[in-house]
Amino acid sequence: MRMESTQLLRAQEQTALKDQHRQEILDAGMALCLEKGVAEVEMKDVATAARVSRATLYRYFPSKKALIYEILRHQAAEKTAGYHTDRQAFSGNGHAKFSQFVAQLVDAYVHFPELYRFMGMVDFYYGTHDAPEELMLLYREVFGGLLVEDTPHLYLEEGQQDGSVRADLDPRIYTATVIATLVSLSEQVAANREATQLLYGLARAEVLIETAAQALLHAAQA
Questions:
Q1: What is the pTM of this model?
Q2: How big is the chain by its Cα radius of gyration, in Å?
Q3: C-beta separation of 85 from 149 below 8 A
Q4: How far apart are CA 85 and CA 43, in angstroms?
Q5: pLDDT at 2
Q6: Is 142 contained in some domain?
Q7: Are 148 and 84 in contact (CB under 8 A)?
């Protein structure tokens, strides 16, 4: 019994050490990416910053892409935990519900600008190299923690039926346009927040995102 307890304790210690190494690698990778940019970070830099050998690093993450993708997943899960647990279901007509969905996109940037900044780096670096489907699956994982609804085009369809949304819109295409526009703008603002405020004389960089959201919602209204 004593031997079994000792073995169990050792196994728990080894698991804790592995978890610690993994966390240190993810933290070091995130810090380096924000400091230097994803394109400039090399695996040897991460190993040095995390104080692990390259062999250890590659046991956890076989490639730079595997590491970067996991950093994004980890950051999204960590930062957005419990983000919308107290939110109520959307209400009103179709356009009103879609407006509440869009408000979530804007609110997500306000709460997690650093996450959007990192997403922008990942999108810029891997967007021209990876298959679009692979990045879309990754972003779907990330946005799963940011958004309550994953079928917002249904609100536009509902709005077309109740007369609150223009009948000539394609709900799926317009929803994709809104999401792509706001996420891309959020990534750009997050990457150059102070410069954006100075360039346009803004007290808050978020005003650009909020204004774009309102314009897109107005354009969809019947």
A1: 0.74
A2: 21
A3: no
A4: 37
A5: 55
A6: yes
A7: yes
> What stretches in the chain show pLDDT beneath 50?
8-9, 11-13, 16, 85
Range of the domain at 214: 94-220
> What distance in Å separates the CA atoms of residue 33 and residue 37, rounded to the nearest whole number?
5
How many H-runs (helices) and E-runs (strands) does the chain carry? 11, 0
For residue 10, what is the domain's CATH number?
1.10.10.60
Amino acid 120: pLDDT: 83
Domain stops at, among 18, 39, 62: 62
Token output for 82: 């419990």
**Does an H or E element contain 136, and which?**
helix 132-143
Return the sign of the alpha-carbon dihedral for residues 60, 61, 66, 68: positive
Alpha-carbon span 126 to 65, nearest angstrom:
8
Residue 123 has a CB neighbour count (10 Å cut-off) of: 18
Q: What is the pLDDT of residues 151-208, one digit of tens each?
A: 889 999 999 999 999 999 999 999 989 988 988 888 888 888 888 888 888 888 888 9
